[in-house]
Please model this.
Amino acid sequence: MRLVGPLVEQVDSKLIASLIPIAQRLSDLDSTIWGANTEASNRLNWIKLPTDSRDLLPQLDSLSAWARSNNLTQVVLCGMGGSSLAPEVISSTYKKNLVVIDSTYPGQILNSVPNTLKNSVIVIGSKSGTTIETISHLKLFISLLENEGLAAKDHLVIITDPGTELEKTSKISGYRVINADPQVGGRFSALSAFGLVPAALLGIDISVLLDDAEELSNSLSKADSPAIILAALLFSKTDQIFNLCEEKSNCPGLSDWIEQLVAESTGKNQVGRLPVVVSKKLEAIGGFTIGFTSGDFDVIIEASLGEHFILWEWATALLCYLLQVDPFNQPNVAEAKESTGKILALMIDKQFKADGPILETENYSLFSNMRIAHLSDFLTSTPAYFSIMAYLGKGIDDEVKVLRQLISLKTGKPVTFGWGPRFLHSTGQFHKGGQQNGVFLQITGDVKRDIAIPGQIYGFKTLVAAQALGDGKALASRKYPLLRFNLTNRAMGISELLEAAKAL
Model:
């Protein structure tokens, strides 16, 4: 691998020297690096995955042979956060067709489900076995398989930690279950069963990923460690924002995986580092810019995907040491889940009363905890960053992504973009736990066609609404500026929103 760039030469040599013994302790799986009372004591096995995951190879070879012999050529993955982001970048890098369902938005789910499941293997990934989105997806696919007269046990593969309720019920039902290492956290699980099972089913030679990661990991605790240099850069050359540029990357989608790893790991105690994913260098605002190929970047990291995985995991863990935060917990993700659960319960009982809009038009309704009359009133504030949170359909409402560039151009501020509820398992932690200087724009939309969740008295329409409102409540409780556009006419509403941004 190669780590170069003008900023690399400017890193304080004393800072790098101070990290060398910490990296050596990390190599020895020293859980006291981040203090005495952290989750590190049962979250450090990711360091050994480049070698330990080889134990999975016979099981994965058998699984792949089963899929081939039954002509299961379409791989569908249901998972959130670390359970889907790593497989997604692996499949994109190797140019394989993987259907990822990491949304509760009915339109996106309907758009993702294959016309027939006869030739599909459905992978359900949930570390805890209780992830509400993924368990809902599992129930849906069991029903869809039954509707086609197909046996669920012939099409389902479950990835979860040993001892979870999901493991128990899946084994009783005869589903294929592959256990993940319980001492590896979700966002550090790229080289665990969560990343490797979908890759193996796609026909990817995962030994190459592990070989590359192992070779690099052997040097990451040494004096010239690129992980130490990268951690020092992220600590000393920015106090919050840095950009990840996807332009000409050999690992498309890698930035989304890095975004979760860094933002969710560091964004606590009102400190952290927030990656802003941009498609071109010209879009980068604030902080420095990391590129993944030769070009006019402050930092260039040229590496294979396996090298990237282990490099960024090490660098993030070392960065958290410098920031004095626990890399392995996510307290505010749990907070948003709790808020969602309370709203969902009220919706089920028909007791939920939403605040009224401050403005209504033919195509959208506007809600806010601020006194504003127009989008321009909202965007004239001077935060460190804006965040767009779109509870819409990825692959359906993609035009809304243009809003990120428009707001960034008009305000001169960094702007992040996340599809909801996917981002709740990523930057959602940073929004609430990191520096308190963000401004938040939620975009929701009326759902014309709901999907029932088997075994529940609510459908995905209700679930995604509760998730948006729950996260909004968590943000508003901190007095963060929050604006929600609810689109009553999807196409026209998005168009009006874009025009309003252009007119700023």
